[in-house]
Amino acid sequence: KRNKWIALALCAALTCSLAACGTKAPDEPADPAAGSVQIPNPWTDCETMEDAAGLAGFDFALPNPLPEGFVLSAIQALEGEAIQVLFQKDDVELCLRKAAGTEDPSGDYTQYEEETAVRAGGVEVAMRGADGRVSLAVWTDGGYAYSIAVSGDGISADDMSALAAQAR
Q1: Would you tell me how many other CB atoms lie within 10 Å of the CB of residue 167?
Q2: Distance CA 53, CA 29 (A)
Q3: CB neighbours (10 Å) of residue 49?
Q4: Tens digits of residue pLDDT in 77-112
Q5: Whole-model pTM above 0.70?
Q6: Whether residue 65 has a cis bond before it, omega within 30° of 0
Q7: CA 62, 89, 145: angle at the middle one, nearest 5?
Q8: How many Å apart are CA 18 and CA 164, to the nearest integer?
Q9: Where are the alpha helices (DSSP H) in 1-97?
Q10: How far is CA 3 from CA 8, 14, 138, in A?
């Protein structure tokens, strides 16, 4: 009789353990991103460079002319901090930034194969890229930090130098 009770107790324990393992997980959302939190875009779109300057608290002189074929696609500002101007040519984007302070304003943390320093517009400009093309230029001048970032294969060092010499 004792063996029957032991066998019955073991069967009950096994049934309980199977029931616990077989419980259904809570339903997951149909959209995996539904539970994630996105950071809002901090940039404010501006109609004109004057609007951006009013928001940022300083002006930004853009290079003229730009490399052939680039057209203005956006003017944006961070209140009291920075101005960003975007130009587009086909699938290539040119992003020019000016920010208060001396920190690199580009937001580009890519490790480039090539890095050189050149003098442009009376300041030292760090140029980064690959295969003789420049994808990023960064410099400081008069309490402001500047960057020019180019998507795709970059632009020539001469074109980047010309842009950096004029952006103030």
Answers
A1: 24
A2: 44
A3: 17
A4: 999 999 999 999 999 999 999 999 999 999 999 999
A5: yes
A6: yes
A7: 35
A8: 69
A9: 2-21, 49-56
A10: 8, 16, 82
